[in-house]
Amino acid sequence: MLTSPHPTPLLRRSEWRDLGGTWAFAFDPQGRWRVPGDVRYDRSIEVPYPPESQASGLHDTGPHPVVWYERTVHLSPEERPLAGRRLLLHFGAVDYAATVWVNGQHVTEHRGGHTPFHADVTEALGGGGDLTLTVRAQDDPRDLTQPRGKQDWLDEPHVMWHWRTTGIWQPVWLEWVPETHLSALTWTPSLDRWDLTLDARLTGPVDPALSLRTVLTLDGRLLADDRCVLVDAHLVRRIGLPDPGVEQGRDGWLWSPEAPQLIEATVELWRGETLVDRVHSYTALRSVGVDGRHFLLNGRPYFLRLALDQGYWPGTLLAADDAALLLDVERAKALGFNGVRQHQKLADPRSLYWCDVLGLLVWADMPSHYAFSTEAVERLVAEWTEAVRRDRSHPCVAAWVPFNESWGVPDLPTNPAHRDYVRALYHLTKTLDPTRPVIGNDGWEHVATDIVGVHDYSLDPAVLLGRYGTKAATEATLGDERPGLRPLFLDGFVGLSHPVVLSEFGGIDDAFSTAGAPGRQARDAEHLLVWYAELLAAVHACRGLAGFCYTQLTDTFYERNGLLHADRTPKAPLEALRAATLGPLAGTLTAQGYLPRWAARPGRQEAPAMI
Questions:
Q1: Can you give the three-state secondary structure of 288-340, one letter per residue?
Q2: Where would I find the Glycosyl hydrolases family 2 sugar binding domain in this sequence (predicted)?
Q3: CA dist 598 → 151, 460, 550 (Å)
Q4: pTM for this prediction
Q5: Which domains does the chain have, with CATH numbers?
Q6: With the CA atoms of 306, 310, 316 and 317 taken in that order, what torsion angle do they form, in degrees rounded to the nearest 10?
Q7: Are the beta carbons of 497 and 489 closer than 8 angstroms?
Q8: CB 326, CB 332: distance < 8 Å
Q9: Which positions ≥6 away from 220 have C-beta within 8 Å?
Q10: pLDDT for 577-595, tens place per residue?
């Protein structure tokens, strides 16, 4: 596989050019400038880092509803599009609404702060050698109908919301393509049929001489060399694979966090015997699902050990370079987790690439809006649809989470429209991707879900064992208790036959280097480790759970409850934290319940029954 991922790792060409670096930049606080000729640039910015970040060179955290970017790119004679070639301009993500001009010519608009878009800029180039790129980004910090996740709408971060990420925050690049080219690939594996379905889409004229060739290899071994005639711009093709037959032989082909086996793919477009286009991709044989109380990976029960991952970095905020994305995946695996919940942020595709390559499951969250309205619904549905289409071929993606803790639908118990909205997103997601579980509203107030996600921040291991220690105890908790002070089910929906995942818990604060939340502080690194080990030992002993998600992987601004500091250094010995994650470690079960080892220490920190 690649050592450094392409911005779109599932559809890679060799001819592309990164446009990261220094761009001219201007704030437009009143939104007065409308076209490139109006703008007066008075500073510069390092793309793709948002102006709020240190890495941008600006570190201006004030609210800025409109910003402008401009850069002139010189193309060598070899880079200028010739007959039959097109030049595409790609944006990984621009928050929130982007308008793009090339050489003063309007080329595209896009709304949605977390999903990609592109424009064919061949005609705007006009045969010359220079491209002047202008981007206007509108990101109203006060607009609560805008999907924003954990980006704060107040001037300063408060409680658990963080600095904003305005404008360009993922890669910008040029790509050279043939006039008729492959524009989208979607891979769907089937373990039942032992095959792969390729959904390929073309852009450009289609003629009867076109055919598509797909070559699949596993560890250098040829699995398939398939070629078929194209009759239009959309092809769905099932490619059978040689079946090892016996179960032990098949296991060596399957993708899992323990053995992330990937199948490399080369997809070529031919006109007769002439190669027109070639892209590189990858896929995997892997299935995820649910069966009664179990989460299933490749048809077998699989216990989830997830960490909540908010994906912020001190110097770059939501943006990150490849080394930072790789480090997060490596750290999560080193800590013993087999997955992460990408919380209130759509993961950069390069991050998903490393999860695919190294083996880390991902629960994919949709960043929430906070005010409910028709416009909010339209915005979130459009962006979520783009997100699912972008990421559904990544083997690591194991579940979709369109809502979290009723954010954006605060009146779920009393407003039928809010409940219908959650149900609609659940079913839309199942329609866009029937192959993965969907958690309709993670945390509580479930009205449609495949997995019952429960948020329970009790820091007393005995309480967790009492609530989820047995199937009977879990059923009683689901029916009678409110761990997050909210009912777990609404409107007649009952999820007693569904897998239950403790999808947020823990949150032990780092009080030995900074002030922590009352009742949650660890006194020192040893106390943090022992407390974490006791919690994890209790959760591993809970027979009513299909998995857990610990809060959280890293410190995130005011939320000082990571196992790692914000710079990704561990707060306690990494191997000891790993042993606790894998569990069980310390503590004993007694007739009186669970007795944590630290509980008998003089001056111990009391753990409240519920937070």
A1: EEEECCEEEECCEECCEEEEEECCCECCCECCCCHHHHHHHHHHHHHCCCCEE
A2: 64-136
A3: 37, 12, 20
A4: 0.93
A5: 16-178 (2.60.120.260), 181-283 (2.60.40.10), 288-600 (3.20.20.80)
A6: 180
A7: no
A8: no
A9: none
A10: 999 999 864 344 332 333 4
